[in-house]
Amino acid sequence: MNDMMKSMLADSHNKSISSKRVVTLISFTLCCVGFIANLFFKFTVDPNMFNSMMYIVIAGLGFTASEKFASPPNPPPQQ
Q1: Total tally of structural domains belonging to the chain
Q2: What is the largest CA-CA distance in the chain?
Q3: CA-to-CA distance for 65 and 18, rounded, in angstroms?
């Protein structure tokens, strides 16, 4: 499970944990919690707060998806 989470959050270029992916995952989790709380427990979430978290998720997923289409960085020249 731990390896699966690391590979899911890893950057595609250098295989380190990407902060964009971590922030997107946290924002998505908070949107899910707010949606479920509103749906089942009648807890109202401020619409501006929910929309801002949703925009963070959309932007994070867009930037992460755009990394797949970018060319890989050039390695430094050998001396």
Answers
A1: 1
A2: 65
A3: 13
Task: Assess if residue 1 is contained within a domain.
Answer: no
Q: What is the pTM of this model?
A: 0.72
26 inside domain = yes
Sign (positive or negative) of CA dihedral 37, 43, 47, 48: negative
Domain boundaries, position 22: 15-68
The two three-digit tokens of residue 76, written as one number: 């430094």
- Asked if residue 42 is part of any domain, the answer here is yes
| pLDDT tens, position by position, 17-52 | 777 888 888 888 988 998 899 889 988 888 898 888
The token duo for 57 is: 């998720």
How far is Cα 3 from Cα 76, in angstroms, rounded to an integer?
29
- The pLDDT, as a whole number, for residue 12 is 66
Q: Is residue 3 one of the residues assigned to a domain?
A: no
C-alpha 60 chain-centroid distance: 5
